[in-house]
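Researcher: Structure prediction, please.
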Amino acid sequence: MTTSTILLLLLSLFIAAGLSFYQYFYKVKIRTRTYWILAFLRFVSVFGVLLLLINPILSRKTFEVIKTPLPIVVDNSSSITDLKVDATVKELQQKLASNSALKDKFDLQSYRFDNEFESSETYDFKGKQTNIEEVAKNLKSIYKNAVFPTVLISDGNQTTGNDYVYSFDATNKVYPLVVGDTTTFLDLKVSQLNVNKYAFHKNKFPVEVFLNYSGTKSLNANFKISQGNSTLATQTIAFSPSKKSAVVNVLLPANQVGLQIFKASITSGETEKNTYNNTKNFAVEIIDQKTNIAIVTEINHPDVGALKRAIESNAQRKVTIVKPNDIKSLSDYNVLILYQPSSNFKQLFENNKLAGINTFIITGISTDFALLNQQQNNLVFKMSGQREDYSAQYQSQFNLFALDNISFEQFPPLQNAFGTVTTNSNVSVLLSSSIRNIQTNAPLLAFAENQGKRSAFLLGENIWKWRLQSHIDTKSYEQFDVFVDKIIQYLASNNSKKSLVVNHESFYNSGDAIEITAQFFNKNYELDDKARLTISVTNKNTRKVKQYDLLKSNNAYKVNLDGLAAGQYTFSVKELNTNTVYNGYFEILDFDIEKQFVNPDLNKLQQLATQTQGQVYMPNQVDTLIKSLLDNTSYKAIEKAIVKKTPLIDWVWLLVLVALSLAAEWFVRKYNGLL
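Model: Predicted structure follows.
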């Protein structure tokens, strides 16, 4: 409290006392008890009012002890049960969480993780994936700028996510408690299998298989790939203590159209503790034709190479780069990409009026806009000879096909001639354009359909910069390539418009996220937000049926079917208001990645401990771990002073006291006839 405030409070005391004296004692000959009561009440009222006017700030200091956090993180994946250490894990967690000395020194927090990370003290060990990197991310977020130790109770076997060794903060020590038998058992394992999802009929497709061996003696293993009762490929692999891995590359024939299931397996004459990881099923969908796309251009430009790479990232697409006068037969192609058409494209446009091939027109500085105005009527161009940079603005109401915003607004601008572009009524705009954050109300990427013929328009060159920027942002070309593939898929399809469009995979691995999306359109082919979609899923073997509702997201309806057992399934998506139905099929392959392990990954956990300057402990060393944490002087509780300042005007009871004092004074005066 400042000196001026204290002086004002003293002055208030004198003023309140003076007014009370003047009112009830000045020139009063007989000072009865009633006058003393009235004087006191008047003093309280006046002094209370003056206090409220001065409004001094009252400070109160308290102290809070902040302990160092100690997260106890438990692996809740099913591999803990498979290694038969689930009881051990619960016992270790309970021993740490209930230790009174640790409670006195640390703020104990219990967490569990599998594919996700959450606060919990209960464990069921049913997680289908293990993501230790997720632990590192969440601990960094929860305990920002704090120095703390972490106890990680796990087998160290990660099945998804990035390498966790370098994901943890190096300044915060991690103490792994390794569970599972570290004894080396003889084990053969199909550790990884790489194969494309699609292959073409009457071709051969490559399969790459990674095999691993753990053991102390040399042996010969038999590797084979089979389909049903037929063996398609066999090979003998020699392993030894010095050769514990092998890579097998096989070409398999694509003789049958449709979804084909294969099995890769490795066996030997030796007895193994875990034989589940000796086999791995995989599936390939055999299709009978490719989508042939022609990029027609007269100029050399980086856009052409970027488009070719993006389109051919889908194995179902084949791209040919050709000049307009070199095309012999339009029937050889499913889609024409006309890159910056000039006057030499006139004959191609005329020929395509009869062929009816869907087109993707990309304009730029070298484009003949007068020719485009003559050959199509979806867009009208009034362009000048001046150049301009156009940035993209995503239009969320676009509904011709499902596409997420991949940060289009952050991509570099495209270059095109300056001018105005107007559209007719049947043009749908996915990306509009802006110039230096000023909306032009003109399209940048638009789609149109006239009498069954589909067209797309990209009004600007340098889309190669978008692909590069997407890779910089996401460390992958996948998002951009999927964006281009969606455009080609729309143009490659000549089907009439459907009111119910459902997207799903033909097969899933057991444990993968099984998500089916659907869109329902009204008669004007607008996304219907009031649709009621349900899905009925039937197991072909057991005939068991499950019903789900599809939930509305941004521009589609979605359902997650996680938890279904391996097998073949048929499903039916139905819109309840119109009874529109879509029937489909998918298969879940029997593959539990958490059953692939026979030992904990001790090496990885040791690397993690070394990286964070922690130490690895075994279950029988938990008391040593507790003693180490208690003896570590780096972790001390901090006493934090908290000063709380409260203005006196916030004291409601002072105002109540003033009101009661005035009321009591009036009542006493009234009672004694002094009014």
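Model: Residues 97 and 108 are 7 Å apart (CA to CA).
Researcher: Thanks, that helps.
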